[in-house]
């Protein structure tokens, strides 16, 4: 006779503690089989040594070991189309319930709808829970129900709606694991090679969110040379190796609110993507889709490799290529440079960042690229064009960051600026004005 079980489906929540969906699954009446599915639809176009895939795989092995050593349980790893995997699971077990946490991206919504429909046909409910954000979807909107498209009023309403006793509940999974996890002598496992990947050379660094960092975040976050000026939290929020509730709790414990506001920016862009999914491929402001981009492939290549002749732009791109990370202040500059100085479509830059960034998050990446291009919500006006030279002088005056990533910047071998700033600015204003008026 087939065993009666519930399933918890790990996705963007790769931790055991303070995990809403896992907590709810463990509250149920049946042993919980944790699973993870490596989805070829998501993995298909990634490089063989993608550091994010290595990170996910490593984290899953750590969780498997914890569950095995402490609870004689584990995580079953699968590779394939999620719907096909669920068909096999329903054949193998009497699946009673499937639990997971919400995923808001367009592909995820489509995937989950297919799985939910199949499970329903077989008498199985798919229950999903809010876990990766404090507020989602329509939870922070204007009085008339319309979504906010400007950050500051969204942030103020977010803070008005926030209630620690409601939104910072600790979901204590550990107290439930001993009695409710599915136990077995072994669980399906996969090596990186078996899913078509190799161990990446780039590693995801640990995050550092100390009280000192939060207290001084406002003064340090804009200067890329300050090693301890940022938290490196992005990939850990993206893959759920840390709880957003724990991070907000840390943020509000300190007097400075700048760090908390950055966490709110993340949720602002998430609700924008939820309400306006077209922004993945189209300008939020439709008239910006009329811009006549130059899209010079050779110039795009120089931008990608950090050989533009503008030292701070080049430093940022080289840091990205070498580490999978780029300081946020520098991200704004390199994005502006691509769109405004070179008149290359923001979608080209967004796709390159998607390939390289360890903390790649569709909503934030699209939102920030459209901000830089002037086409998005709450965007910088198109006539705001960063001067790469004054930005370098302002944010890396001692040249520490530039020397690290562009050591040859004073040598004859270093290229001259690929485009004159004044000419590029005037050209950009002309092209944008023709498109948007």
UniProtKB/TrEMBL annotation:
Keyword tRNA-binding belongs to the record: no
Cofactor binding, per record: Binds 1 FAD per subunit.
Cofactor: (6R)-5,10-methylene-5,6,7,8-tetrahydrofolate; FAD
GO MF entry, a single one: deoxyribodipyrimidine photo-lyase activity
Binding-site residues for FAD, renumbered to this chain: 217, 259, 262-269
Family: Belongs to the DNA photolyase family.
One GO BP: response to light stimulus
Photolyase/cryptochrome alpha/beta domain segment(s): 4-134
PROSITE patterns given in the database record: DNA_PHOTOLYASES_1_2 (PS00691), PHR_CRY_ALPHA_BETA (PS51645)
This protein's record includes keyword Transmembrane helix: no
Annotated site residue numbers, Electron transfer via tryptophanyl radical: 293, 346, 369
Record protein name field: Deoxyribodipyrimidine photo-lyase
UniProt entry keywords in alphabetical sequence: Chromophore, FAD, Flavoprotein
Pfam family, one: FAD_binding_7
InterPro entries attached to this UniProt entry: Crypto/Photolyase_FAD-like_sf (IPR036134), Crypto/Photolyase_N_sf (IPR036155), Cryptochr/Photolyase_FAD-bd (IPR005101), Cryptochrome/DNA_photolyase_1 (IPR002081), DNA_photolyase_1_CS_C (IPR018394), DNA_photolyase_N (IPR006050), Rossmann-like_a/b/a_fold (IPR014729)
């Amino acid at each position: 006779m087939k065993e009666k079980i519930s399933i918890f489906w790990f996705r963007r929540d790769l931790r055991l503690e303070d995990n809403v969906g896992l907590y709810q699954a463990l509250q149920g009446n049946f042993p919980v089989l944790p699973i993870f599915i490596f989805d070829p639809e998501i993995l298909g176009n990634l490089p063989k040594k993608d550091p994010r895939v290595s990170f996910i795989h490593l984290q899953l092995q750590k969780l498997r070991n914890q569950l095995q050593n402490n609870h004689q349980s584990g995580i079953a790893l699968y590779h394939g189309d999620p719907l096909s995997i669920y068909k096999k699971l329903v054949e193998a077990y009497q699946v009673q319930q499937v639990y997971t946490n919400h995923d808001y991206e367009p592909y995820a919504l489509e995937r989950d709808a297919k799985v939910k429909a199949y499970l329903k046909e077989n008498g199985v409910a798919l229950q999903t829970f809010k876990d990766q954000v404090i507020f989602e979807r329509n939870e922070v909107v204007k009085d008339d129900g319309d979504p906010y498209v400007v950050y500051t009023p969204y942030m103020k309403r977010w803070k008005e709606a926030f209630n620690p006793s409601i939104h910072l509940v600790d979901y204590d999974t550990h107290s439930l694991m001993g009695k409710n996890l599915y136990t077995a002598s072994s669980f399906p496992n996969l090596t990186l090679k078996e899913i078509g990947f190799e161990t990446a050379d780039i590693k995801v660094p640990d995050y550092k969110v100390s009280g000192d960092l939060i207290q001084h975040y406002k003064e340090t976050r804009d200067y890329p040379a300050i090693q301890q000026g940022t938290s490196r939290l992005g990939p850990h929020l993206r893959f759920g190796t840390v709880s957003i509730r724990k991070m907000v709790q840390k943020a509000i414990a300190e007097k400075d609110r700048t760090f908390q506001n950055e966490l709110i920016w993340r949720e602002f862009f998430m609700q924008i993507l939820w309400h306006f999914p077209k922004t993945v491929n189209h300008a939020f402001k439709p008239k910006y889709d009329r811009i006549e981009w130059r899209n010079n492939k050779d110039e795009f290549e120089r931008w990608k490799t950090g050989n533009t002749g503008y030292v701070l732009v080049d430093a940022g791109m080289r840091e990205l290529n070498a580490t999978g990370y780029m300081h946020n202040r520098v991200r704004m500059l390199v994005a502006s440079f691509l769109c405004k100085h070179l008149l290359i479509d923001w979608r080209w830059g967004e796709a390159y960042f998607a390939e390289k960034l360890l903390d790649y998050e569709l909503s934030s990446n699209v939102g920030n690229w459209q901000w830089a291009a002037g086409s998005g919500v709450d965007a910088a006006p198109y006539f705001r064009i960063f001067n790469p030279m004054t930005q370098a002088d302002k944010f890396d005056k001692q040249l520490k960051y530039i020397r690290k990533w562009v050591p040859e910047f004073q040598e004859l071998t270093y290229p001259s600026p690929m485009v004159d700033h004044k000419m590029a600015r005037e050209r950009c204003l002309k092209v944008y004005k023709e498109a948007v008026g």
